[in-house]
Automatic annotation (TrEMBL):
This is 2970_t:CDS:1. GO terms for biological process: SCF-dependent proteasomal ubiquitin-dependent protein catabolic process. It comes from Funneliformis geosporum. GO terms for cellular component: SCF ubiquitin ligase complex. InterPro entries: LRR_dom_sf.
Amino acid sequence: NISDKSLFEIAGNCHDLQEFYFAEARWITDRFISYILNSCLNLRKLDIVFSREDIKDTSTLIRRCFNIEYLDFSRIGHNDIGDEVIEALAYAYHKLEYLELDGCSFISELSI
């Protein structure tokens, strides 16, 4: 069972990390997402499907890691992913090829 401290150590020491996959993680928080995005600028794939913690500040995604090609936020508990986040991602992430948002209830058909 990996700890929050261990995740921060990995992100802090693996600046060339290109893929991060943690399905069903119960400890992924806004703070960690912000840290990994600020530390690993070569990140291309971020998959935190079915994470159970609160992801309430997805705006950190918009400010960093413009190399992102793959994002999977499906079934994340208690998130704030809405139309404004989708529009900002579309505007900023020109390399984005895959975006999964199943279960993100604040998104309208118009933004997709």
